[in-house]
Amino acid sequence: MKFFSAIIVCAVLLPLVSAEPILNTTTTTTTSSAARSSDYDTNNECPLVRSKEECDPFDQCGWINGQCIKKILEECGFINNDSACNSNTDCVWIPDDRDTRPNAMGYCAKRTEAVITPPSDDNIVRDNIVRECPLIQTREACDPVDQCDWIYGVCRAMIVEGCGFVSSNSTCESLTDCVWMSDASDTRPNAKGLCAKRTEVADGNCVSGRFVIGSKSSCNSVKGCSWVGGDSNLCTVAPSQLDCQGIKNKNNCKNAGCISKQTKRKKVCLGRWEYTLLSKLKKTDGIEAKRAIEDEFGEDTYNVVLVGRGAKPSKGKDPARIILFHNKKGAIRKTPKFG
Q: Which of 159, 186, 296, 339 yields a CA-CA distance of 20 to 30 A from 104?
Protein backbone atom coordinates (compact mmCIF):
# COMPACT_ATOMS: atom_id res chain seq x y z
CA MET A 1 0.00 0.00 0.00
CA LYS A 2 2.87 2.39 0.82
CA PHE A 3 4.44 1.59 -2.54
CA PHE A 4 1.33 2.61 -4.46
CA SER A 5 1.00 5.82 -2.37
CA ALA A 6 4.57 6.85 -3.30
CA ILE A 7 3.82 6.29 -6.98
CA ILE A 8 0.74 8.51 -6.74
CA VAL A 9 2.72 11.33 -5.03
CA CYS A 10 5.47 11.22 -7.68
CA ALA A 11 2.90 11.29 -10.46
CA VAL A 12 1.32 14.40 -8.97
CA LEU A 13 4.62 16.29 -8.44
CA LEU A 14 6.40 15.32 -11.65
CA PRO A 15 4.67 17.87 -13.94
CA LEU A 16 5.77 20.66 -11.60
CA VAL A 17 9.49 19.99 -12.18
CA SER A 18 11.05 21.77 -15.17
CA ALA A 19 14.48 21.31 -16.72
CA GLU A 20 14.83 25.08 -17.25
CA PRO A 21 14.04 27.99 -14.89
CA ILE A 22 10.72 29.65 -15.59
CA LEU A 23 11.41 33.38 -15.82
CA ASN A 24 8.86 35.83 -14.64
CA THR A 25 7.83 37.51 -17.90
CA THR A 26 4.61 39.04 -16.57
CA THR A 27 4.60 42.82 -16.49
CA THR A 28 3.50 44.06 -13.09
CA THR A 29 2.02 47.52 -12.90
CA THR A 30 -0.06 47.37 -9.76
CA THR A 31 2.05 48.21 -6.71
CA SER A 32 5.67 48.82 -5.83
CA SER A 33 5.69 45.63 -3.75
CA ALA A 34 4.69 43.62 -6.82
CA ALA A 35 7.51 45.22 -8.80
CA ARG A 36 10.00 44.33 -6.09
CA SER A 37 8.74 40.74 -6.08
CA SER A 38 9.22 40.52 -9.87
CA ASP A 39 12.78 41.81 -9.58
CA TYR A 40 13.52 39.33 -6.84
CA ASP A 41 12.22 36.37 -8.86
CA THR A 42 14.21 37.32 -11.96
CA ASN A 43 17.34 37.91 -9.89
CA ASN A 44 17.10 34.39 -8.48
CA GLU A 45 16.07 32.63 -11.67
CA CYS A 46 18.71 33.96 -14.13
CA PRO A 47 21.64 32.29 -12.27
CA LEU A 48 19.85 28.91 -12.59
CA VAL A 49 20.54 28.96 -16.33
CA ARG A 50 23.81 27.06 -16.83
CA SER A 51 24.95 27.96 -20.38
CA LYS A 52 25.41 31.06 -22.52
CA GLU A 53 23.23 29.56 -25.25
CA GLU A 54 20.30 29.20 -22.85
CA CYS A 55 20.95 32.53 -21.07
CA ASP A 56 21.23 34.95 -24.02
CA PRO A 57 17.69 34.48 -25.41
CA PHE A 58 16.15 35.73 -22.15
CA ASP A 59 15.67 39.52 -22.31
CA GLN A 60 16.13 39.94 -18.57
CA CYS A 61 19.35 37.93 -18.35
CA GLY A 62 22.92 38.33 -19.62
CA TRP A 63 25.94 35.98 -19.74
CA ILE A 64 28.71 37.77 -17.79
CA ASN A 65 31.96 36.17 -16.56
CA GLY A 66 30.63 32.65 -17.04
CA GLN A 67 27.37 33.35 -15.21
CA CYS A 68 23.83 34.13 -16.25
CA ILE A 69 23.03 37.34 -14.40
CA LYS A 70 19.93 39.50 -14.25
CA LYS A 71 20.34 42.46 -16.64
CA ILE A 72 18.19 44.73 -14.50
CA LEU A 73 21.10 44.88 -12.10
CA GLU A 74 24.07 47.02 -13.17
CA GLU A 75 26.05 44.79 -15.56
CA CYS A 76 29.34 46.63 -15.02
CA GLY A 77 29.21 45.95 -11.30
CA PHE A 78 29.27 42.20 -11.88
CA ILE A 79 32.49 42.22 -13.92
CA ASN A 80 35.46 41.41 -11.69
CA ASN A 81 38.52 41.96 -13.91
CA ASP A 82 39.88 44.98 -15.74
CA SER A 83 40.20 43.48 -19.23
CA ALA A 84 36.60 42.27 -19.34
CA CYS A 85 35.41 45.55 -17.86
CA ASN A 86 37.25 47.82 -20.30
CA SER A 87 36.14 45.68 -23.24
CA ASN A 88 32.56 46.65 -22.44
CA THR A 89 31.80 50.02 -24.06
CA ASP A 90 29.52 51.01 -21.17
CA CYS A 91 32.04 50.22 -18.40
CA VAL A 92 35.37 51.43 -17.04
CA TRP A 93 37.68 49.74 -14.53
CA ILE A 94 38.45 51.71 -11.34
CA PRO A 95 41.32 50.23 -9.27
CA ASP A 96 41.53 50.55 -5.50
CA ASP A 97 43.77 53.59 -4.92
CA ARG A 98 44.78 52.23 -1.51
CA ASP A 99 46.11 48.97 -2.95
CA THR A 100 49.28 49.46 -5.00
CA ARG A 101 50.07 45.75 -5.47
CA PRO A 102 50.16 44.34 -9.03
CA ASN A 103 46.76 43.03 -10.09
CA ALA A 104 45.15 44.66 -7.07
CA MET A 105 41.39 44.44 -6.90
CA GLY A 106 39.17 47.25 -8.10
CA TYR A 107 35.63 47.59 -9.36
CA CYS A 108 33.90 47.92 -12.69
CA ALA A 109 31.67 50.98 -12.99
CA LYS A 110 29.38 52.44 -15.61
CA ARG A 111 31.15 55.18 -17.56
CA THR A 112 28.26 57.53 -16.86
CA GLU A 113 28.71 56.89 -13.14
CA ALA A 114 32.52 56.56 -13.04
CA VAL A 115 32.72 60.09 -11.68
CA ILE A 116 30.16 60.77 -8.97
CA THR A 117 28.47 64.12 -9.49
CA PRO A 118 25.99 64.95 -6.73
CA PRO A 119 24.18 68.10 -7.86
CA SER A 120 23.93 69.76 -4.46
CA ASP A 121 27.57 70.59 -3.78
CA ASP A 122 30.04 71.74 -6.45
CA ASN A 123 32.99 71.14 -4.12
CA ILE A 124 32.00 67.50 -3.68
CA VAL A 125 31.68 67.13 -7.45
CA ARG A 126 35.14 68.61 -8.01
CA ASP A 127 36.75 66.48 -5.28
CA ASN A 128 35.28 63.25 -6.63
CA ILE A 129 36.36 63.97 -10.19
CA VAL A 130 39.88 64.90 -9.10
CA ARG A 131 40.14 61.69 -7.07
CA GLU A 132 38.61 59.19 -9.49
CA CYS A 133 39.95 60.21 -12.93
CA PRO A 134 43.61 59.44 -11.99
CA LEU A 135 42.55 55.95 -10.89
CA ILE A 136 41.86 55.04 -14.52
CA GLN A 137 45.13 53.58 -15.75
CA THR A 138 44.84 53.39 -19.56
CA ARG A 139 44.12 55.93 -22.27
CA GLU A 140 41.54 53.62 -23.84
CA ALA A 141 39.57 53.59 -20.61
CA CYS A 142 40.09 57.27 -19.82
CA ASP A 143 39.18 59.02 -23.09
CA PRO A 144 35.51 57.95 -23.26
CA VAL A 145 34.79 59.37 -19.78
CA ASP A 146 33.50 62.89 -20.46
CA GLN A 147 35.03 64.56 -17.40
CA CYS A 148 38.44 62.92 -17.76
CA ASP A 149 41.25 63.35 -20.30
CA TRP A 150 44.48 61.44 -20.95
CA ILE A 151 47.33 63.96 -20.52
CA TYR A 152 51.05 63.12 -20.40
CA GLY A 153 50.39 59.48 -19.52
CA VAL A 154 47.89 60.19 -16.74
CA CYS A 155 44.09 60.30 -16.69
CA ARG A 156 43.24 63.75 -15.33
CA ALA A 157 40.05 65.57 -14.38
CA MET A 158 39.15 68.16 -17.01
CA ILE A 159 36.89 70.09 -14.62
CA VAL A 160 39.94 71.32 -12.71
CA GLU A 161 41.14 74.41 -14.55
CA GLY A 162 40.09 73.16 -17.98
CA CYS A 163 42.87 75.03 -19.83
CA GLY A 164 45.66 73.65 -17.65
CA PHE A 165 44.77 70.03 -18.39
CA VAL A 166 44.62 70.37 -22.18
CA SER A 167 47.78 68.98 -23.80
CA SER A 168 47.09 69.70 -27.47
CA ASN A 169 47.73 72.99 -29.26
CA SER A 170 44.70 72.64 -31.53
CA THR A 171 42.37 71.62 -28.69
CA CYS A 172 43.62 74.50 -26.54
CA GLU A 173 43.14 77.11 -29.27
CA SER A 174 39.61 75.82 -29.93
CA LEU A 175 38.60 76.80 -26.37
CA THR A 176 37.55 80.45 -26.16
CA ASP A 177 38.98 80.90 -22.65
CA CYS A 178 42.38 79.34 -23.40
CA VAL A 179 45.56 80.15 -25.31
CA TRP A 180 48.52 77.90 -26.21
CA MET A 181 51.95 78.89 -24.89
CA SER A 182 55.28 77.45 -26.04
CA ASP A 183 58.39 76.73 -24.00
CA ALA A 184 60.77 79.55 -24.95
CA SER A 185 63.76 77.36 -24.04
CA ASP A 186 62.68 74.41 -26.23
CA THR A 187 62.68 75.16 -29.96
CA ARG A 188 62.33 71.57 -31.14
CA PRO A 189 59.38 70.73 -33.44
CA ASN A 190 56.32 69.54 -31.48
CA ALA A 191 57.92 70.54 -28.19
CA LYS A 192 55.60 70.41 -25.19
CA GLY A 193 53.74 73.57 -24.31
CA LEU A 194 51.19 74.90 -21.88
CA CYS A 195 47.49 75.67 -22.27
CA ALA A 196 46.70 78.71 -20.12
CA LYS A 197 43.69 80.84 -19.25
CA ARG A 198 43.62 84.05 -21.28
CA THR A 199 42.84 86.17 -18.23
CA GLU A 200 45.81 84.79 -16.32
CA VAL A 201 48.18 85.35 -19.25
CA ALA A 202 47.28 89.05 -19.41
CA ASP A 203 47.69 89.38 -15.64
CA GLY A 204 51.16 87.82 -15.97
CA ASN A 205 52.43 90.37 -18.51
CA CYS A 206 51.58 88.03 -21.39
CA VAL A 207 54.10 85.36 -20.31
CA SER A 208 53.95 82.45 -17.87
CA GLY A 209 57.37 81.66 -16.51
CA ARG A 210 59.41 80.33 -19.42
CA PHE A 211 56.27 79.86 -21.53
CA VAL A 212 55.35 82.47 -24.16
CA ILE A 213 52.63 82.88 -26.78
CA GLY A 214 54.40 81.92 -29.99
CA SER A 215 51.59 82.73 -32.40
CA LYS A 216 50.96 86.29 -33.61
CA SER A 217 47.22 85.74 -34.07
CA SER A 218 46.87 84.09 -30.66
CA CYS A 219 48.82 86.88 -28.98
CA ASN A 220 46.71 89.62 -30.55
CA SER A 221 43.52 87.85 -29.42
CA VAL A 222 44.47 87.95 -25.71
CA LYS A 223 43.20 91.16 -24.14
CA GLY A 224 46.10 93.29 -22.92
CA CYS A 225 48.69 91.59 -25.14
CA SER A 226 50.07 92.52 -28.56
CA TRP A 227 52.56 91.07 -31.03
CA VAL A 228 55.71 93.12 -31.50
CA GLY A 229 57.33 92.59 -34.90
CA GLY A 230 60.60 93.64 -36.46
CA ASP A 231 63.68 92.12 -34.84
CA SER A 232 61.77 91.19 -31.67
CA ASN A 233 58.90 88.98 -32.92
CA LEU A 234 57.40 88.27 -29.53
CA CYS A 235 54.21 88.64 -27.54
CA THR A 236 54.29 91.36 -24.91
CA VAL A 237 52.06 93.78 -23.03
CA ALA A 238 50.22 95.92 -25.57
CA PRO A 239 51.41 99.53 -25.83
CA SER A 240 48.79 102.15 -24.95
CA GLN A 241 47.25 104.77 -27.19
CA LEU A 242 49.63 107.30 -25.68
CA ASP A 243 52.56 105.10 -26.73
CA CYS A 244 51.27 104.57 -30.27
CA GLN A 245 49.87 107.95 -31.28
CA GLY A 246 53.19 109.59 -32.22
CA ILE A 247 54.28 106.83 -34.64
CA LYS A 248 53.89 108.05 -38.22
CA ASN A 249 55.07 105.12 -40.36
CA LYS A 250 52.60 102.25 -40.93
CA ASN A 251 55.18 99.46 -40.62
CA ASN A 252 56.75 101.02 -37.56
CA CYS A 253 53.28 101.26 -36.04
CA LYS A 254 52.56 97.56 -36.56
CA ASN A 255 56.02 96.46 -35.45
CA ALA A 256 55.51 98.38 -32.22
CA GLY A 257 52.40 96.32 -31.44
CA CYS A 258 49.95 99.08 -32.42
CA ILE A 259 47.20 99.22 -35.06
CA SER A 260 47.43 101.39 -38.17
CA LYS A 261 44.11 102.77 -39.44
CA GLN A 262 43.14 105.02 -42.31
CA THR A 263 40.85 107.96 -41.45
CA LYS A 264 39.27 110.37 -43.92
CA ARG A 265 42.31 112.60 -43.78
CA LYS A 266 45.29 110.45 -42.87
CA LYS A 267 46.63 107.23 -41.40
CA VAL A 268 46.78 107.08 -37.63
CA CYS A 269 48.53 104.74 -35.20
CA LEU A 270 46.29 103.50 -32.40
CA GLY A 271 46.56 101.42 -29.26
CA ARG A 272 45.20 97.93 -30.02
CA TRP A 273 42.89 97.53 -27.06
CA GLU A 274 41.73 101.16 -26.88
CA TYR A 275 40.67 100.90 -30.52
CA THR A 276 38.99 97.52 -29.91
CA LEU A 277 36.86 98.88 -27.06
CA LEU A 278 35.96 102.22 -28.67
CA SER A 279 34.82 100.53 -31.88
CA LYS A 280 32.19 98.63 -29.88
CA LEU A 281 30.65 101.63 -28.11
CA LYS A 282 28.57 103.06 -30.94
CA LYS A 283 24.82 103.13 -30.09
CA THR A 284 25.47 102.35 -26.43
CA ASP A 285 24.40 104.70 -23.63
CA GLY A 286 26.88 107.55 -23.18
CA ILE A 287 27.15 107.21 -19.40
CA GLU A 288 27.67 103.47 -19.67
CA ALA A 289 30.27 103.98 -22.42
CA LYS A 290 32.21 106.43 -20.25
CA ARG A 291 32.10 103.96 -17.34
CA ALA A 292 33.29 101.10 -19.59
CA ILE A 293 36.36 103.11 -20.68
CA GLU A 294 37.24 104.06 -17.11
CA ASP A 295 36.75 100.48 -15.88
CA GLU A 296 38.99 99.13 -18.64
CA PHE A 297 41.86 101.62 -18.52
CA GLY A 298 41.45 103.38 -15.17
CA GLU A 299 39.73 106.64 -14.27
CA ASP A 300 42.90 108.73 -14.46
CA THR A 301 44.36 107.37 -17.71
CA TYR A 302 42.10 109.18 -20.18
CA ASN A 303 39.89 112.25 -19.99
CA VAL A 304 36.51 111.00 -21.23
CA VAL A 305 34.25 113.83 -22.47
CA LEU A 306 30.56 113.58 -23.44
CA VAL A 307 29.48 115.96 -26.23
CA GLY A 308 25.79 116.37 -27.17
CA ARG A 309 24.33 116.80 -30.65
CA GLY A 310 25.11 120.25 -32.07
CA ALA A 311 27.77 120.93 -29.47
CA LYS A 312 31.50 120.98 -30.07
CA PRO A 313 34.35 119.83 -27.82
CA SER A 314 36.64 122.51 -26.44
CA LYS A 315 39.35 123.66 -28.80
CA GLY A 316 42.84 122.31 -28.63
CA LYS A 317 44.19 118.79 -29.07
CA ASP A 318 44.55 116.56 -26.06
CA PRO A 319 46.11 113.11 -26.79
CA ALA A 320 44.65 111.75 -23.56
CA ARG A 321 41.10 112.91 -24.32
CA ILE A 322 38.39 110.57 -25.62
CA ILE A 323 35.36 112.35 -27.11
CA LEU A 324 31.98 110.60 -26.95
CA PHE A 325 29.41 112.18 -29.30
CA HIS A 326 25.86 111.34 -28.24
CA ASN A 327 22.36 112.07 -29.54
CA LYS A 328 19.33 113.55 -27.73
CA LYS A 329 18.58 110.17 -26.14
CA GLY A 330 22.10 109.93 -24.77
CA ALA A 331 23.27 107.13 -27.07
CA ILE A 332 26.69 107.28 -28.74
CA ARG A 333 26.04 108.25 -32.37
CA LYS A 334 29.47 107.58 -33.87
CA THR A 335 32.69 105.81 -32.97
CA PRO A 336 34.49 107.72 -30.19
CA LYS A 337 37.82 109.30 -31.07
CA PHE A 338 40.94 110.66 -29.40
CA GLY A 339 41.93 114.31 -29.56
A: 159
